[in-house]
Amino acid sequence: MECVRQLRGEAIGLQVPHLEVGLIHANGGMQACHSVTILSR
Q: What pLDDT, on the 0 to 100 scale, is given for residue 31?
């Protein structure tokens, strides 16, 4: 959710300036499942 807020410019007080691309990484289970999502404006 933080990545989406940053890309939308809604992360008040924590906003990264001039952000164009965000990467989300998640692990699941016993390191058996991995997911990567790349988002852009």
A: 76
Tokens of 22: 């965000």
| Residue 1 pLDDT > 90 | no
Number of domains observed in the structure of the chain = 1
Domain with 21 in it: 2-40
pTM (two decimals): 0.72
Alpha helices in the chain (DSSP H): 2-8
Of 12, 14, 1, give the one whose Cα is nearest residue 22: 1
User: For residue 41, which of 12, 16, 13, 14 has the smallest C-alpha distance?
Assistant: 16
CA–CA dist 6, 40 (Å, integer): 10
